[in-house]
Amino acid sequence: MTSPSISTFIPAHVSLFFSPFFSPNPLKSGSTGAGITLSDGLTFTTSPSNKSSLTINGSKVHMEVANIIFNSLPSPLHVEAQTKLPLGAGFGLSGAVALGIISSAKALLDLPFSPSDIVRIAHSADVSAGTGLGDVMSQSHGGIPIRVKPGGPGHGILEKISETNRIEYLSFSSMDTYTILSGDLSKIQSIGSESLHSLLKNPSLDSLFDLGYKFTLETNLMTPKIEETINTVIDCGGKASMAMLGETVISLGTGLSDAGYVPNICETFSPERPLFDIN
User: Fold this and answer.
1) Cβ neighbours of 179 (radius 10 Å)
2) Whose CA is closest to 237, among 269, 209, 197?
3) Fewest beta carbons within 10 Å, which of 33, 38, 95, 273?
4) Rg (Cα) of the chain, in Å, rounded?
5) How far apart are CA 28 and CA 87, in angstroms?
6) For residue 157, what are the β-bridge partners?
7) What are residue 237's phi and psi, to 5 degrees?
8) How many CB atoms are located within 10 Å of the residue 104 CB?
9) Alpha-carbon distance 30 to 37, whole Å?
């Protein structure tokens, strides 16, 4: 007899600027800022198992955020995820893993979780693992979310930019999110807050990319390869910025293609309603 399984899709999320906030309570920790959820993401297939495990593209992986979720469940699960996105490159995959596992577990194990519960558990796990601050809230909503107040459900507040567009991206390497988030963040917090204030005055994709590029410059987070690629796109009349936090360039429309690169192509992920309605 074939074991039952659940299939779930969670979009990637790319922050173009952010300002981190920390609290002893993970639900009050998070970030303000803005980014884009993508039509590329992770597709999960989850089934009962004798021991909890996670594979990504067929390879077994150990992620602290997954372990936190697994340890909170009443029964073990085997989770298989498929994606063309690289880990550690700024796509919010740890948040996607948290949402994918807990939402699949709710359906497969018939757990009494509301949409807010799912997002609350996933956000807390991502924060506790030190791998993300604002991705889960953004991924739960979809579209182009602006994180106006930090934190998980009951604390964080989202607004949105009501636009859709083609998005291109090019990844070069991974970055250690934990190392950056555990360092001196005062400059990032200040510039991120200024960026948010400016975006709320003119909430548009063009403005988001302009502010993302400015944030990337002023925080000195760019690697030489990122800087070279972004400048090439801008010189060709396009808009591009860096994915926070990863060695990935993301461009609006055909920006990377027009500059002579061969990027991955997707769109803004724009569901008719939020994936997890926490209101």
Assistant:
1) 10
2) 209
3) 273
4) 18
5) 26
6) 149
7) 90, 10
8) 23
9) 17
Closest CA to 245 of 22, 119, 87: 87
* pLDDT, one tens digit for every residue, the chain (279 residues): 456 888 999 999 999 999 999 999 999 999 999 999 999 999 999 999 999 999 999 999 999 999 999 999 999 999 999 999 999 899 999 999 999 999 999 999 999 999 999 999 999 999 999 999 999 999 999 999 999 999 999 999 999 999 999 999 999 987 776 666 666 788 999 999 999 999 999 999 999 999 999 999 999 899 999 999 999 999 999 999 999 989 999 999 999 999 999 999 999 999 989 999 887
**pTM of the predicted model as reported, rounded to 2 decimal places:** 0.94
Q: 198 near 139, Cβ under 8 Å?
A: no
The answer to whether 147 and 30 are in contact (CB under 8 A) is: yes
Output the CA torsion sign for 129, 11, 135, 243.
positive
Angle, helices 205-219 vs 224-235, to 10°: value is: 140
Helix, strand, coil shares, percent, the chain, to 5: 35, 30, 35
Angle, helices 93-109/115-128, rounded to nearest 10 degrees: 140
Phi, psi dihedral angles at 14 (to 5 degrees): -115, 120
Here the tokens at position 270 are: 């724009």
3 state SS of 82 = strand
